[in-house]
């Protein structure tokens, strides 16, 4: 059976922790259970958590806290096993073979792959570093029509960190509304802003056909909890709920108990500050590295996320560069092709300083070796191909 793998995750899981330095996932140093419970008098409550099946849609208190985070209502929320489940069941609920689905590149390609595997006609709208990775809304307007079922986006963007302006959000809503299309807004990176303390606006409440996805994996620093969510209008909620039952039944009760603690107002603020402080500092280290190796690399400094989408000045495909970095430098990074855009590497910087410095040193050495063998593309010259063809099917 033809099946498009989720190339980024396949790349990470086949490596399976073998690379000495992994800058390939998109989080930051995670929170420990001890750090989360610091100052909380909850140990007895946690120890008494019954390990029975929890409510399928999620514990009511947790749904209330998630609803607050999006200014919605608890009945609009389904708690999922990470945003990964949320995106997957959203595509299963919304998309049928032949449907027209529009996504953005560079982008986190889970929704892209799920839609391809659902038999949709998937069209990517490409943005460029030269345009500061702003979304090309003229191209979006030209692509979307009455046959468009879904516009899927990630805000803030993974891998570029671009945050949509209010005007861009309004324009995307207007384009969707004109076509009657759904918007799937993956808002997992909300709270990772680097240049402002204002949390990125949610799409929730801007349009009746919007589904928002969130999780505790990024700004809260807890990917291991596997707690994510969907916020959806009644029109879609039942269909999503039925799919959630098939996929996972429910999220784990201990994870949900810890998630409730994480989402109280005190901890929401504490954890988001922690994460932002870490990635604001580590981004300066990545900035310094890019500046020091301006002959080899360049980038548009990201306004959010723990990621840098770094252009390398070589006429080589990104999968080859990433593979060489792994084989010769023992460093794992995401290849631009994994995000639909050639000529780049996605580098996660939210690491311990010594670890990041060693990994970046190795990265520079391997890029230098490649430049010596294959020659260098001058900084600013266009990458060989602006984007890559769809991932091969198996
Ligand atoms: C944009 C985006 N969506 C979804 C996910 C999956 O998140 P989770 O860990 O909550 O399943 C990620 C993880 O990297 C992501 O970056």
Automatic annotation (TrEMBL):
Its required cofactor(s), as named, are: pyridoxal 5'-phosphate
Q: Which UniProt keywords apply?
A: Aminotransferase, Transferase
**Molecular function (GO) terms listed?**
pyridoxal phosphate binding; transaminase activity
Compositional bias annotation for Low complexity: 374-386
Is Transferase tagged as a keyword? yes
Cite the Pfam families for this sequence: Aminotran_1_2
Enzyme Commission number, as recorded:
2.6.1.-
- Give me the ranges of the annotated region Disordered: 374-394
Domain (Aminotransferase class I/classII large): residue spans on this chain: 52-362
Q: Known PROSITE patterns for this protein?
A: AA_TRANSFER_CLASS_1
List the CDD domains: AAT_like (cd00609)
Key word Transferase present: yes
PANTHER family per the record?
Answer: AMINOTRANSFERASE FUNCTION, HYPOTHETICAL (EUROFUNG)
Question: Which family does the record assign?
Answer: Belongs to the class-I pyridoxal-phosphate-dependent aminotransferase family.
Q: What protein does this entry describe?
A: Aminotransferase
